[in-house]
Amino acid sequence: MIQVRLFASLREIAGQSRVEAAGRTVGEVVDELSARYGDRFTRIAGVGSYVVNGERAARGTPVAEGDDLAVLPPVSGGAVRPGPPPEGAAAQAARPTRPIGAPVPYSPGP
């Protein structure tokens, strides 16, 4: 059996963070878990990513007894705030120091 770690929504669907499943490839293991946990699990795991023993993996990656497979759902960035961006240091640093269209002084090299 392959030790499988589930995260976020996949963990919630399965009701636990660690499960065991059989298979010779990542895809076979994920297919077994999909049959066990249903359509929602299938949809999420199908667009997620996989890690075997700490290395990124694909559905065709072979797995063996004792391997650790992590199944990660897709992850997105942070929340979008309505309105203009906050006036942080980066925004202030990007602001031009002279009016747009003002002549740029020329300084010949040494």
Please tell me about this protein's structure:
β3 and β4 form a beta hairpin. It is built from four helices and five strands. The relative contact order is 0.18. It is of the alpha+beta class. α1 (8-14) runs antiparallel to α3. It has helices at residues 8-14, 26-37, 39-46, 89-94, and strands at residues 2-6, 18-21, 49-52, 55-57, 68-72. It is 30% helix and 19% strand. Strands 2-1-5-3-4 form a five-stranded mixed sheet. It has a domain at 2-72: Beta-grasp domain (Ubiquitin-like (UB roll)), CATH 3.10.20. The longest helix has 12 residues, at 26-37.
Write down the secondary-structure element order.
Answer: EHEHHEEEH
How does the overall form come out from the CA principal axes? elongated
- Tally the helices: 4
Q: Describe the sheet with the most strands.
A: 5 strands, mixed
